[in-house]
Write a structure and sequence with these properties.
The protein is an alpha/beta fold and 351 residues long. The chain is 38% helix and 17% strand. It contains 13 helices and 15 strands. The strands form 4 sheets. It has a 9-stranded mixed β-sheet, sandwiched between helices. A two-stranded parallel ribbon has the order 7-11. The model has no long low-confidence stretch (mean pLDDT 91).
Length: 351
């Protein structure tokens, strides 16, 4: 039986990031079909080099590895989503685009807001423009978004909220292409996420820092994130945003689990600028446009009337917040040991 990626030419912008690398591995695994090619498009040559070696199972390589680039199923192209000509160049040869390039560190975006706008907003516009103005035969574009785009309180979230709208509006400018999005919360064990931070603090002997005792977060793995993205590709209608129905937990419970029996102090540091106590994946306003998608996902219908379908029975009657349906400490332990055993195993190491 043919998979949805069989014979497809796939482009992953920002493909050297934590999500991008897991996404590329899943694509190359053939679990959902064997693509003709997977192209990683990003601006960091060093990250591309080490990713190339990793995927080739090589510790070191001379230039012949780069010269053979065009013959491999996995290909690497240096470029920047801010640069329209380079976006057009790689989009010409794509059937499916996963738009994962972003500035996503909250403090960095606060100190360099215009840079965040250029990558997160202008980058999306360049892709839509390249496809629409040149009648490219791109079948699907998936914008990779974040919970911080919902009721945003920081620059990163604000730019990602507009990015979502740029991609959704792309359906009107490039009728031959389906523009959709996937929105999810913090990813466990990814670069810069809370689990590696807590483990580093524990390994150093503490203290473990928590901004406020009330803080809650949705929990999902990189594979869960890729599952959400693939579910959107498989079933989302034009203009829809897919959201996983993932569990949540208190950060104090997460810290307590990782600390275990060790005599390590927990310190409350206070809310940082631009930080939310609870994550929200769907707002009260969006709840009225939310339906059940395939396989237990929420599907947010677009606001634009040209794309909207009547929603007679919304899936939600209030926002979807990490403060709801929190896991108990026992449920959290089972979740972590099932989802990321290779990481949480570090809690048993001596600090």
């Amino acid at each position: 039986m043919a998979g949805m990626f069989d014979g497809k030419r796939i482009l992953v912008t920002g493909g050297t990031g934590s999500l991008g690398q897991v996404l590329v591995r899943r694509l190359l695994s053939g679990s959902d079909g064997i693509p003709e090619s997977v192209t990683v498009f990003s601006r960091d040559e060093a990250k591309q080099h080490y990713m190339r070696l990793d995927f080739l199972h090589r510790h070191a390589a001379t230039d012949e590895v780069i010269f053979e680039n065009s013959r491999q199923r996995l290909r690497f192209v240096i470029g920047d989503v801010r640069d329209y000509p380079s976006v057009l160049r790689v989009a010409r040869d794509a059937d499916i685009v996963f738009a994962a390039a972003a500035l996503k560190q909250v403090p960095s975006c606060e100190y360099f807001p215009w840079e965040a706008c250029r990558t997160n907003i202008e980058g999306a516009e360049n892709l839509v423009r390249a496809i629409g103005q040149n009648d490219l035969e791109v079948e699907t574009v998936v914008g990779i978004s974040t919970d911080k785009a919902c009721k945003p309180v920081n620059v990163m979230g604000m730019t990602k909220a507009i990015q979502e709208r740029v991609f959704i509006e792309g359906n009107l400018r490039a009728a031959q292409t389906r523009f959709i999005a996937a929105r999810y919360g913090n990813v466990l064990a990814s670069r810069g996420s809370v689990v590696p931070l807590f483990l580093d603090q524990i390994a150093a002997g503490g203290p473990v820092t928590i901004t406020t005792p009330e803080m809650t977060r949705f929990l999902l793995t990189l594979d869960d994130a890729v599952d959400t993205i693939f579910a959107a590709v498989a079933t989302a209608k034009r203009g829809e945003t897919y959201i996983p129905r993932c569990p949540s937990a208190r950060m104090t419970d997460l810290a307590a689990y990782l600390i275990g029996d060790r005599p390590i102090e927990t310190v409350i540091t206070g809310i940082r600028p631009g930080e939310k106590i609870h994550e929200i994946l769907l707002s009260e306003e969006e709840a009225t446009r939310t339906v059940f998608g395939a396989d237990g996902y929420y599907a947010l219908r677009p606001m634009l009337p040209e794309l909207a379908d009547p929603v007679s029975a919304p899936a939600l009657d209030e926002d979807f917040s990490s403060a709801d349906a929190l896991m108990s400490r026992e449920e959290l332990a089972v979740f972590l040991e099932t989802k990321i055993p290779e990481v949480v195993g570090q809690r048993y190491l001596e600090a």
